[in-house]
Amino acid sequence: MDTRRLALLLVCALSLYMLWENWQRYQHPQAPVATLPAAGTSVPRLPTPTSALSSGVPQPTVPLAPAHLPAVAPVAPAGETLNITTPLYTAQISTQGGNLVDMELAHYTAFSDKRQKFHLFDAQHRYAAQTGLGKTQGTLDLPTHKTLLTPLPGARAVAAGDAPLQVRLAAPEADGVKATKVYTFYPDSYRIDIAWELENHGAQTLLPNDYFAYFQLQRDGIAPEGDSFMLSSFYGAAVYTDAEKYQKAPYKEIGDGSAKYARNATDGWLAMVQHYFVAAWALPDTDRTPREFKLYTPEPGLYAAALILPFPKLAPGEKATISAPLYAGPQDQAALKQVATGLDLVVDYGWLHLIAAPLFWLLSAIHGLIGNWGWAIVILTVLIKLALFPLSAASYKSMAKMRQLTPRLQRLKELYGDDKMRMNQEMMKLYQTEKINPLGGCLPILMQVPVFIALYWVLLGAVEMRDAPWIFWISDLSAADPYYVLPVIMMASMVLQTKLNPTPPDPIQAKVMMWMPFVFGVMFFFFPSGLVLYWVVNNVLSIAQQWQITRMIESGGDKPQKAANDPKV
User: Fold this and answer.
1) Is residue 30 part of a domain?
2) Selected residue with higher pLDDT from 549 and 454
3) Residue 417's pLDDT band (boundaries 50, 70, 90)?
4) What is the DSSP string of 41-58?
5) How far apart are the first and last CA of the chain?
6) Are 492 and 372 members of one domain?
7) How many Å apart are CA 130 and CA 46, to the nearest integer?
8) Pair 308, 47: CB distance under 8 Å
9) What distance in Å separates the CA atoms of residue 200 and residue 485, rounded to the nearest whole number?
């Protein structure tokens, strides 16, 4: 197999791999219907640790109260909505449960309509951040995420430079136990602190084994806006612990119970992930509170990721606070690293993270100098091309020499086409005479592929590309070129590159090589313009390098010899 065939096979294999991977992600079926409670019952859907799924008295997996489903509580009527404004977003809190039910991000536009802002939490996908207090063996009905809360007076907006804003919602007292839900919003961060403040004015002591606190994210399994068959990224839940590291759980696996993730730990976080954005419950790295993670289906078509925390011992007259920070916003890697260890891993680089992470760091450094992500992509592509120049040169030299031998290889096919063994022998003699290794360009190609695939994932996953302009008509590097200028240039460059390659002696292979630029070029009409820009620059540099090397070889210096057994002599 010569270099051009290997290159063709490699391109086809990688393309098919990416298409198959996207097809698998995009075609995730909905999870099986969850088991419903018996007719006539109404059970609030709360997270329960895995240790409490069996009958009898369960044993906790960590020093954390074993939790059962709480007793039936009356369903509160739909509450009013509080609008909270910060410089980064506008949030909506429902008084029913005090849940965070909407978040409009001020600096990010919607995928389909750029006149609208992007919404992370929303009613359309039933996406919300919910918190509450459940019970295992206790008798008090503490507030859940369905309890109607009363908002307390206070400000509803925070401006740049202001102190953090607190929004408080009071729950009905349960036998003298007062619970207040407290949101803390920061003017310069997507972090939101959510806490339950507890005061025991009653006569009984609340014990840790009787109650627990939960902080959960809930949404449907429908693909988020902007996801498609041609351009699909992971969306689902994720869990991280120091011991088990980063674990992804697609909604399908949550629905059928096959998701594999760490259940108990004294560190780590859990999140719901989608392209460019994430919502995560992440305690500080220094907080070693025992915690349990649970991914489950609260009802058919809905999926939940719950962080379950222990309840403190609360004697009469005592106060306590249970809190968990929520990060809800873009997958800004610098910000994510400050929230919790490993949270930046939600930026999905696939299996090439070790290569992709340094490339993104370099891309960010270039952007810091020039202030334009489009030109940063151009410069980074040039730098990578320069770094890989020796490998590319070796590959192009091999292709140039093979190009010179094309007429003679064609002649061998005409003479020995009916005798494959003889034809292969004559071809090997020709390669030996001309001192050409037909596989000489394979290793350089193989060594470059991981770098360029890693850069592909960097550009696909970087939220910094969203709404980032380049020049003229390119106003959003994360969106497709509206006038298809870059895809057409990309297709033309692939055609030109094919012309520079040796003509395959096999007519069928020659036709495949001729049509390949158009077949694969169509894919680029749907790709983000930032990705197409990277490929265009890379192709233009490759063409220039290949043309120069081919010209040097064909103009002298390394002409093929005339062998005695050469049929053209």
Assistant:
1) no
2) 454
3) low
4) ---------GGGSSSSSP
5) 26
6) yes
7) 10
8) yes
9) 67
Contacts with 488 (C-beta within 8 Å, 6 or more apart), sequence order = none
Predicted confidence at residue 550, as pLDDT, reads: 67
Number of continuous H segments (helices) and E segments (strands) in the chain: 11, 18
Q: Which helix (H) or strand (E) holds 131?
A: strand 128-135
User: Residue 104 in contact with residue 89, Cβ under 8 Å?
Assistant: yes
- The answer as to whether 426 is a domain residue is yes
Mean pLDDT to the nearest integer, 23-39: 36
Give the total residue count for the chain: 569
- Judgement on whether residues 398 and 445 belong to the same structural domain of the protein: yes
Residue 348 lies in a domain: no
Give the C-alpha separation, 492 to 535, whole Å: 12
In the chain, % helix, strand, coil (3-state, to 5) comes to 35, 25, 40
- Amino acid (one-letter) located at 461: G
Binned at pLDDT 50, 70 and 90, residue 78 comes out as low
Task: Report the C-alpha gap between 147 and 144 in whole angstroms.
Answer: 5
Q: Are 420 and 506 in contact (CB under 8 A)?
A: no
pLDDT exceeds 90 at position 330: yes
Exposed / middle / buried, residue 433 (Cβ in 10 Å: 0-12, 13-18, 19+) = middle
Task: Fill in the amino acid letter for 280.
Answer: A
> Quick one: tokens of 57?
């008295």
pLDDT (0 to 100) of residue 407: 73
Rounded to 10 degrees, the C-alpha dihedral 242/248/252/253 comes to -40
Least confidently predicted of 140-149, 392-401, 449-458: 392-401
Residue 82 pairs in a beta bridge with 93
Range of the domain at 328: 80-222+294-333
**Whole-number pLDDT of residue 363:** 95
CA dist., res. 294 & res. 347, Å (int): 22
Q: Are residues 322 and 372 in the same domain?
A: no
pLDDT in tens, 171-206: 999 889 999 999 999 999 999 999 999 999 999 999
Same domain assignment for residues 311 and 392: no
| DSSP code of residue 208 | G
Q: Which residue in the block uniquely carries the two structure tokens 């043309």?
A: 547
The CA distance from 220 to 189, in Å, is: 26
78 φ/ψ angles, rounded to the nearest 5 degrees: -60, 130
**What is the reported pLDDT for 42?**
35
For residue 233, tell me if it sits in a domain. no
Closest CA to 35 of 220, 237, 298, 246: 298
Residues 177 and 303 in one domain: yes
